[in-house]
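ok so for the tutorial part 2 we go from a plain amino acid sequence to predicted C-alpha cells. step 1 is just haveing the sequence, like this:
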Amino acid sequence: MKKLPFRRSKDTWITPSEVMEYLFCPRFIYFMNCLQIPQNEEQRYKVQMGRNIHKIKERINKQYLRKKIGVIDKEIDVYLASNEWGIRGIIDEVLFLEEGTMAPLDYKFSEYKGKIFNTYYYQSLMYAILIEKNYKKKVTHGYVVYTRSKNYLAKIEWAEETRANLTKILNNMFEIIELGKFPKKTKNLTQCFDCCYKNICV
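step 2 — the prediction. this is what the C-alpha cells look like for a chain of 202 residues:
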C-alpha cells in the first residue's frame, strides 16, 4: 500500500469508526470534525445496541484461544496508533498465529447473512495496518465475530482494490478535516432519512 501523500497536521488522527461514518456519508466528517457538532449517539438505536458488544465480550473467557484458526496467543482491547498513517484505534483482539503472522479480530452486534459489509473490510484493514506498524509482523487477513449469529466467525481478506481505496479515503478525510472542505453528500439518498444531521445538511 502506498504511503499517504496528504501532509496532515500531527494533531489530526482518524479512527476506523470515523472511516465507517465517512463511508455512510462524507459530510459526517465535516459536521463532526470541522463544525464540532455531536451526533447525539444516545438517540440512535444501532449505536445503543452496539454497546451490548462490550457486555458480551466480558462473558467470553479471556484465556480462550481459537486454535482452529491457529491462534497461539492474543491481546485484548489493544490501543494502537500509526503516526505515519495518522490512524489510531482500539482492537478487540490482536491474534498471534502459529504461522508467525498476526490478525485483528473484531466483535459486531449484528447477524451474518452470507455477506460481509464493505465497511467491515476497511475497518479490519486499518487494524491490520496498525498491527503491522506496531508489531512489525505480517498481517494477511482479519476476523469478525457476529454476536447475533451465535458468535459466527468470518474471515476477511482484502483485495488490492480495497487497499488502494483506503488510501484515497484517508486522504479525502484529511483534506476535509485539515482544510475544512465541504464534501458532497452520499449518493444513496435513502440513508438521509436515518441521519442525525438531516435537518442541517444542505
